[in-house]
Amino acid sequence: MRKITSSIILFAAICIIGFPLAGAEYRGEVIDAIRITRDDIPAGFQYGTVPAFARTVLKENPWRMDKPAIKKLVPRIYPDGDPGSVADMYITIIARTSQPTGDDIVCYVILYNSARSAQEEAKKLTGFSNLNRDRTIVIVHDNMAVFLLVDDVDNFPLIRDMAARIKEKLKLG
After folding, report:
1. CB neighbours of residue 61 within 10 Å
2. pLDDT greater than 60 at residue 34
3. Predicted model pTM
4. Distances (CA, A) of 4 to 7, 53, 148
């Protein structure tokens, strides 16, 4: 009888604690909720045009990347990035209207396979970001990271505003 009671208590504890945590991870739908839209693009900027040489990897802009692009780009985005940890990824490249093939502002929304892999990858991403504080912002929540970067430090206030809007969309305040 004790074994049955103990088993029931253990099962109830797993259901009460485990199931809500299992649903806490983001899925691909969050990308649609927080991605940068035309309304988010600052004056004097537009979605960048992908140059011909880059179209073998970046098919469109903005773009939800396919697995070959994720595999190729993740290690280039931040040092020691593990593409095997990435479940889904979205990129938006924003360029000055006067230079549409530029990459003045780039936003990556990265969904990791799990909160655990996100935690490991977030250490690498934030470590890289800390070395470039005047040009990058990282938002990490559960199994998702948003990585914003600028080429010119004068544009840093623009990504700070974008980061604030993304946090509002995520209701992170």
Report:
1. 17
2. yes
3. 0.82
4. 5, 65, 52
